[in-house]
Amino acid sequence: MAAAAALSPLSGALLRRRFPLHHRRRLLAVVAVSPEAPAPTPTSPLPPPPSSPPRKGYFPKRNEILELTCDGLAFKGKGVCKVDGSNFVLLCDGALPGERILARVSRIRRGAFAEATKLRTLEPHHDAVDAPCPLAADCGGCKTQSLTYAAQIRHKYLQVRELLVNFGKFDPVELESSEPDSILKPIVPCDEIFRYRNKMEFSFGTKRWVQREWKEEKDEGAVKEEKIEGGGYSLGLHAPGFFDKVLHVEKCLLQSEPADKVLEVVQETWMDPALGLTPYDVHKHVGFLKHLMIRTGRNVSSGASEVMVNFVTSLYKPELLEPLVKKITKIPEVVSIMNNVNTSVGNTSVGEEEYTLYGKPTITEMLRGLTFQISANSFFQTNTKQADVLYKLIGDSAGLKGDGSEIILDLFCGTGTIGLTLARRAKHVYGYEVVPEAIADAQNNAKLNGISNATFVQGDLNKINETFGKEFPKPDIIISDPNRPGMHMKLIKWLLEVKAPRVVYVSCNPATCARDLDYLCHGVEDKDLKGCYKLKTVIPVDMFPHTPHIECICVLELC
Ligand SMILES: C[S@@+](CC[C@H](N)C(=O)[O-])C[C@H]1O[C@@H](n2cnc3c(N)ncnc32)[C@H](O)[C@@H]1O
Q1: Which of 41, 170, 187, 381 is the most exposed place for a label (fewest CB within 10 A)?
Q2: Measuring CA to CA, how many Å separate 251 from each of 215, 256, 257?
Q3: Active site includes 133?
């Protein structure tokens, strides 16, 4: 069961609550898939195996050094690895499909599977490439940068297929029958695989986490961790699994070039002792600088990039930020510098108070011909260009007649972007979302674009009761775009009762997506609910190259 936790973004008790037993068992089966063709025969001699080859029924010991072959990727991007001659699964961060690695067993998970730490590559995958970012091997942000992009998206597609079969209980033959009848469509890749993110959030840290260095102890044939923690302040991304250690980042190939310029200027300046700037210490709860958020939007008249810089600090002391502000404003693309003051001991970037230090408090961006205003804390799709592709596909999947006669229900609407892009072809759009600020943004966005046939309502879709659905007409099309935990059983039950002719389920988590599709199509036996939908299409869309994330657009039609 624990292997299921590794595959899904949920873990432990949460996973047990969200996934019934039969689904957790199936998830284990997905972890064990082996979709990767074997790597070609090695051309260079390999070091001698650290121990004799394991037999069938083999069970690893903690700290054992093993040669492993990575078969595929689990949902969070961990490599699914096995030792030769055994089916025992070891999940290993940084292992790429097809790669042979030397690894040390770090954790045995209730006897079901183990976790291993990659020590080094013995034989790279035939799809391996040199990662352009020198930090790729250590930064949790880009786990698959050293795999060709073609291989990355092939693995994402395979993962969606395995989850739909093993977890959603869909027939693999039907899923992949020949075009145009196949349910599972080819994955839509990104045109731009670098500089695609419009928002990055860096953290200030008191502990600098340095790249791992490994020392080979030739006598023992073993490899030892030399050091993982360095001294000095840092500004960068959290080391995978650590909230208090920050990998120092000078440049990030995922953000825009102007955003990289901002990062460079801040890095050059903030550690100057004369400025008296200190990073916030998450253990002692002292220090000033918490996060640096950089967002890139577009001026809707000129099309030029516009950048917002947001300093999240523990106190309001603008005079301390002044030298940084002076330097950053020399970058022509910077049109906004904000200061969110977060006095809580928590590590979030949303402040209780927000101040404009320079320029305007919002930037703008365009999606599907509409203008959106983005403030420091508003949610906006992070890959603008691919969001345009995603929304076009969602629009096509909605299958609107275009005569303005249909009612659209946009569940988990965020700032209203999906509903608003469809509103001109619909009679009315009703959006539901739990975050009040997002609802306010959605209402502003409707006004900004002159859309009057959209109503946005704040509400928790996990807590709906029998009154839900009384305040709007029966929907013709339901768009549901939940976050990673997927839909609550109350909402599934409501969807099965209201029986909208078409549901477009947009998901960023193929595991919970496959579970919810199973419920909607095949019913929920222990709740005595009958499924009433047929799965028509699933389109995987890659929004985040080099990461394990994958978005899916699924179309369901009433049987
Ligand atoms: C994946 S985002 C989708 C946002 C939007 N559809 C878009 O494309 O920008 C999921 C949204 O669901 C909202 N959400 C999460 N849990 C919710 C709940 N229980 N009830 C209502 N909305 C919720 C989140 O705040 C977030 O805005």
Answers
A1: 41
A2: 27, 10, 9
A3: no
Compute the distance between CA of residue 193 and CA of residue 136 in angstroms, rounded to an integer: 14
3-state class (DSSP) for residue 343? coil
DSSP strands (E only) in 18-112: 65-73, 79-82, 90-93, 100-109
Residue of 81, 139, 190, 508 with catalytic role: 508
Q: How many helices (H) and strands (E) does the chain have?
A: 12, 24
Q: Which residue segments constitute the domains of the chain, with CATH numbers given?
A: 2-134 (2.40.50.140), 199-367 (2.40.50.1070), 383-558 (3.40.50.150)
Q: Please report the atom of ligand 1 found closest to the CA of residue 413.
A: 6
What's the first-to-final CA gap in the chain, in angstroms? 33
Closest CA to 509 of 12, 1, 18: 18
Question: Residue 489: enclosing H or E segment and its boundaries?
Answer: helix 489-498
d(CA 263, CA 265): 6
Q: What is the DSSP string of 214-273?
A: EEEETTTTEEEEEES-B-S-EEEEEPTT-SS-EEE-S--TTB-HHHHHHHHHHHHHHT-G
Burial of residue 234 (CB within 10 Å: 0-12, 13-18, 19+) is buried
Q: pLDDT tens digits for 445-491?
A: 999 999 999 999 999 999 999 999 999 999 999 999 999 999 999 99
Is residue 408 within 8 A of residue 399, CB to CB? The reply is no
Question: Model confidence over 239-249: pLDDT tens digits?
Answer: 877 788 889 99
Question: Hey, which of 434, 445, 456 would you mutate to test ligand 1's pocket, going by the most ligand atoms within 8 Å of its Cβ?
Answer: 434
